[in-house]
Amino acid sequence: MRSLVVLALVGLTAQLVDGALGMGYGMTSTSLLLLAGVAPASASASVHLAEIGTALAAGVSHWRFGNIDWHVLRRIALPGALGAFLGATVLSSLSTAVAAPWMAAILFTLGVLLLARFARPLGPGRRTRAGARLLAPLGLVAGFVDATGGGGWGPVATPSLLAHGHMEPRKVIGSVGAAEVIVAIAASVGFVLGLGRGGFLLPMVGALLLGGLIAAPVAAWLVRIMPAQVLGVVVGGMILLTNARVLLALVDPALIVWVAVYAGLAVAWLMALTLAVRVMRRVAPTPAPEPQPAPV
């Protein structure tokens, strides 16, 4: 019972992060299951089954708060579902360790771009929409990585869309989160075909689902009220810290190097956040003066 309560808390925390930042549920939940000794395919299968419910709750919440761009959702969801199905049925039993450093390097670069982007003014309200030539291959790759790695839909799709054009961060996060429902369903179908129903650990699925359902509305509300500048820097810093571990592990440096790298990243993140807050305050609209009574 205690382990299920812990899993429910993990599901709550993971969904809170995922719903607010557009990433993190799969990576957090799958890492815990792997740490507990669950086979990689069963861990990914169980997380994706729970993710159907949590992503649906998050999608409804994002819809109610106006965080979804339906143009983006339609063009990224179906390729994402295809990629997730292929990843689950063909590569669920294979290790993704070889691809992990390359993906970490790409995401780390995107994190740097996000910090640089959102630490300065975004421009006078210009908005562009990502086209099908970006969304279709992005969805396919993100869905494939998500199924084979037990998580990755948000970390691949969200920073890529944030780094492209001038789409509002809350719209990116809401659209990617809502599309994850279809991606999770496709991945689960692929795992059923590849592993059978015995590949799903239902008690763990239920605990993760319960925690995620509680957190979904809170996360959707949070992403709606957070300023674009701050939200973009938060996402960028999270990507840097998460993927630095994978890149450092390739060379296995001394402890002092680990500490120095993480300290440097933390300082850079704090500086970018400070600049973003200053920009946000500088461009905030000045309240209109109160009307004065007419002279008698």
UniProtKB/TrEMBL annotation:
Name of the protein in its database record: Probable membrane transporter protein
Keyword check for Membrane: yes
Family recorded in the similarity comment: Belongs to the 4-toluene sulfonate uptake permease (TSUP) (TC 2.A.102) family.
Signal peptide: none
Location of this chain's protein in the cell: Cell membrane; Membrane
Superkingdom as given in the UniProt entry: Bacteria
Keyword Mitochondrion assigned: no
Membrane topology, from the record: Multi-pass membrane protein
Any one Pfam family match given in the protein's UniProt record, by short name: TauE
Transmembrane parts of this sequence: 32-60, 72-94, 100-119, 172-194, 200-223, 230-250, 256-277
Sorted UniProt keywords: Cell membrane, Membrane, Transmembrane, Transmembrane helix
